[in-house]
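Notes for week 9. Today we move from apo structures to complexes. The key idea is that a small molecule is not decoration. When we ask for a structure prediction with flavin-adenine dinucleotide present, the ligand SMILES becomes part of the input, just like the chain. The input block below holds both the sequence and the ligand string. Read it once before you look at the output, and try to guess where the molecule might sit.
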Amino acid sequence: MGGIIKTLEALNSIAGIEVELNHDLTKFSTMRLLAAGDLITVSSVEALAQLQIELQKLKITPIILGLGANQILEKKASKPYLHLELPFDKSYLGKVRDAYTLPASVSLSILSSHAIKNGLLGWEVFTGIPASLGGAVFMNAGTNLGEIGSIVKSVKLMTINGDIRTEVIGSDSFSYRHNHFVKPGEVIFEVELIQLGIDPSISKKIKDYLELRNRSQPLKENTCGCMFKNFKDLSTTCLAGQFLDILGMKGFTVNGIRVSPQHANFMENVGNASHEEVVAIVKLVQAELKLQFGIEFETEVKMPKS
Ligand SMILES: Cc1cc2nc3c(=O)[nH]c(=O)nc-3n(C[C@H](O)[C@H](O)[C@H](O)COP(=O)(O)OP(=O)(O)OC[C@H]3O[C@@H](n4cnc5c(N)ncnc54)[C@H](O)[C@@H]3O)c2cc1C
């Protein structure tokens, strides 16, 4: 263990890598859970390649951390977190392009502003989703207006051996909140997005959808968005939030975690909660849903493996 810590610290000597051991990570997730761990921040593609080689030698696969809007961070993580802060010159968005080559660490909110300003058709699909572009592509994030996968043309990934792999996106690359091409340990570092035309009504559509979200979701609370995926089979879609509402779960609280009184599929950190409390309430709610409706709702939020 001491050897690994020393090696992680030694990575600080590589340009473009910053290692912070036992770092407070509470602010690194939108749920603001009590969390700490070793954080590796990477600010260039070359550094990312070198990092992958070094981590491979140590047989360490880090946890990739985007905006932390869809993952539960542990109180004391046993694996290091890898966070990208790749350079991005915002003037790149100064004009409309047919295709955009963007670093994975760019935030969707910056892209949404560009879409509102220019009426980019297709970009309304990610309205209001807090995310890094890499995290959104990994999750195939989406709303009632569609999924981000529909406007991704290609993705560049860093393999565990430090090689660059380009994935050209096809009709089977994504499904509901899921990608089918990122292999274990690979890091998305660049994404090519397309737009589907210019339509001035898109700006209003995005603004209206943002307002709707503001009214219907607890956006001022510390959450990870929807905790459970909706259940879908060939003939039906069961909305997890609706089923939780029927069970009267709104406001149900276990220690520092509360089922949102506003939207039952959101869980709010109302105290100084840690991942254990999230895991406890999730298990309880899942068991109740199974008992009452016979449906196993999977979590959409990525839970700790341990
Ligand atoms: C208030 C709120 C509302 C939300 N609404 C929606 C919504 O409407 N629709 C929706 O789909 N989601 C929604 N979410 C969830 C979340 O915003 C999305 O899942 C988003 O895509 C997560 O992006 P992120 O950068 O935070 O990724 P993280 O949460 O940091 O990571 C998510 C997963 O992606 C992996 N990952 C992240 N970056 C990379 C990378 N560069 N390479 C490889 N793997 C990577 C992580 O390891 C992890 O497994 C909401 C969340 C909040 C807090």
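The chain has three domains: 2-84, 90-202, 218-293.
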